[in-house]
Structures are given as structure tokens and as C-alpha cells.
Specification:
Radius of gyration: 18 Å
Number of strands: 7
Strand content: 5-15%
Distance between the termini: 36 Å
Strand order of the largest sheet: 3-2-1-4-5-6-7
Shape: globular
CATH topology: Rossmann fold
Length: 255
């Protein structure tokens, strides 16, 4: 897949899935603006990727979002791809789940995704109108969902709800953004081996046992799917969600 000359924003890209997506896009020719709440992680990640700049900050904050879009245009001249990867997982029993935890989770997972999509789409529309061609270049938006949007998971009522809402946002934006040739999709990873999950005792072994394909996903597996959906090969795909879980949602045994 050729991303030569394209410019992408990726939130939550200091490590894990987000970093792998940013790295792969760069390897395919894109320039990337990567974000992470941890400033040190963001700067270190950008230093490891060609044609990358970092914009640390809260991905749910509209000021950070505007800085991401402004940096993409200021440094690289345009914006073609925006990937709302930043998200948080806060476990808790439904009957005792506190409002503060709920609001923190939905701020990042929902507000961060919604307002990055809004700011990125506005920029894509502006630059397409400035070109004044009959065939606008459009753009691609990609949201990070989860298998918990498709199967119930203990102590993840709020998280699963937020991820299901993200998928509905992708479907709804088909109405608003298709006239501008902007496609919008989501990816729902299952159990994935990242820096965070590798620290969990028994995680890889247990998920290997209950995943039909015999192993959890890797960040590379998720990035493969993301790169396809934001590539020119997927221009006719919009409003969809691809589950990348090795078949777990088909059988759904609890870990």
C-alpha cells in the first residue's frame, strides 16, 4: 500500500498499537503527527520514526486536537488520514461504578474520537475545496473500537458501551462525510499483546488457549487492518467495523 505524500494523525501512539500504526504508515511513505498523553513517550516515538513529529497532550482535549491538525498542515501541508487510537480501559462493577470513572472514560473514548473526527474532517474539506477539482481527494478517518462492543465482558459495561458508540459514530458519519469523499471505519481488536498486557501475569497463555487461531493478536495484526482501511484500496469501504480477534467473538469464552 502506497502512502507516499500522505499525512496522518495518530493519537495514543507513544507505544503499542498506535506506535505500530504510525511506524508502518511512515514506512509506506506517509508523514505522521503522533500524539500521546506522556510527553516523553511521544517524543521518543517520533524520534524513532522518519517524517514524524510529536504533539503530546490529552487526546480528549479540543486544544490538543486543534494543535494536532494545525501541526499536520504547518509541517506537512495537508491532512489525509486521522486515526483516533487513544483510549482508556477502566474496569469496575456496574452497581458500584463511580461517576468520576465513567466521565473520565467517556471523555477520552468518546469525546476524543468525536472531536478529532470533526476537526480532521473540517481540514480535509477545506483543503479539498481549495483544490477546486471535480474529484476531491477526500480523506480517511479510522476509530479504534474493541471486541467488547460486540460481546459482553465482566466489569466492562462502561467501556463496552463507549466502544459500541464509536462504531455507531463511524456508521452515522457516512451520511455527513461521504459527499466529501471521506470514508470512516473502525477496527475492533481482541486480546492484543502490547506493553501493557504483557505485564499481566498469564495473559498470553490464557488468551492463546481460548482464541480459536491459537494466539492473541499483535500490534502488527491490528496495524495491517488499519493500513488497509485508510489506504486507497479501501476507498469504497465506509461505515464498517472489522474485528481482529483470531475468532474469539465467534465462540466468546471468558478469560
Amino acid at each position: 500500500m502506497d502512502f507516499e505524500g500522505k499525512v496522518a494523525i495518530i493519537t495514543g501512539a507513544g507505544q503499542g498499537i498506535g506506535f505500530e500504526i504510525a511506524s508502518r504508515l511512515s514506512a509506506e511513505g506517509a508523514s505522521v503527527v503522533l500524539n500521546d498523553l506522556d510527553a516523553a513517550l511521544a517524543h521518543q516515538a517520533a524520534a524513532r520514526i522518519p517524517r514524524a513529529v510529536s504533539v503530546p497532550g490529552d487526546a480528549a482535549d479540543t486544544t490538543t486536537i486543534e494543535r494536532l491538525v494545525h501541526t499536520a498542515v504547518d509541517k506537512f501541508g495537508r491532512l489525509d488520514i486521522a486515526i483516533a487510537n487513544a483510549g482508556i480501559t477502566l474496569f469496575g462493577d456496574f452497581l458500584t461504578y463511580p461517576r468520576e470513572k465513567f466521565e473520565a472514560l467517556t471523555k477520552v473514548n468518546l469525546s476524543g474520537t468525536f472531536f478529532l473526527a470533526q476537526a480532521a474532517a473540517r481540514q480535509m474539506i477545506r483543503q479539498n475545496e481549495a483544490r477546486r477539482t471535480e474529484k476531491p481527494a477526500g480523506g480517511s478517518l479510522l476509530f479504534m473500537s474493541s471486541v467488547t462492543a460486540h460481546q459482553a465482558h465482566k466489569d466492562l459495561a462502561a467501556y463496552g458501551m463507549s466502544k459500541a458508540a464509536i462504531e455507531m459514530l463511524a456508521r452515522t458519519l457516512v451520511i455527513d462525510l461521504s459527499p466529501y469523499k471521506i470514508n470512516v471505519n473502525s477496527v475492533a481488536p481482541g486480546a492484543t499483546l502490547t506493553e501493557r498486557t504483557l505485564d499481566m501475569q498469564g495473559y498470553a497463555k490464557r488468551w492463546s488457549e481460548i482464541t480459536p487461531m491459537g494466539r492473541p493478536a499483535t500490534p502488527q495484526d491490528i496495524a495491517d487492518t488499519v493500513l488497509f482501511l485508510v489506504s486507497d484500496k479501501a476507498r469504497q469501504i465506509t461505515g464498517q467495523c472489522i474485528i481482529v480477534d483470531g475468532g474469539w467473538t465467534s465462540v466468546s469464552p471468558s478469560p
